[in-house]
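Appendix B, example 12.
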Amino acid sequence: MGRKSLKETRQREIINVFYQVAKKEGLENTSIAKIAKVMEINPSLIIHYFQTKEELTYALIDYILEKYLVIYRVRRDDKVSLRDSLIRVIAYLFSKKWNKLFDDGLFYSCYALTFRDKKVREKYKNLTNSLREKLAALIQKCHDEGVIEVKHPRRTADLIFALVDGAYFYLSVADSGAAFEERIDDYKMEAFRILGFEDVYNLPSP
């Protein structure tokens, strides 16, 4: 695999700082000038790579997808069964590690743009489709090898993500961490029930 170009490296540095500034101050309050100030560079250097804040926002949403797809990466030295791989993915989806892959407030700020920006809407559509396709493929593989019996792997993946999305949106206003953990465990168990893993309880943290 070839080394990343200086342009790619610099763009990633800018996106990372954009994320940190937007997380702290809000997407609407973040500007190229503020990003440049944190990086201690001239704003023109950022504009060299991203001409507008809009272009930066598009790149940030691509960054979100990369973050979320981490859940499906299994190290080659991981000798786990297909069943355990699926269990790990579900446990991860309903965990604080998944929830903390990307700041919720910033995620929803970007999501709000889908209602007025077709390109952002397409990016979010691709993001959600990618996540569901990955899960559907894993469920299909488990089904094909007799690990589980699921008539509609894609529909099952959709149902599980409906639980995930609804859970985090609803629980984002939970009164306490304990309340969050209790309710998220209920949703996780429901996902296992959908997959026929009703015997899975008291799983270790992913």
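Residues 6-51 form a domain with the Arc Repressor Mutant, subunit A fold (CATH 1.10.10.60). The chain has a mean pLDDT of 85.
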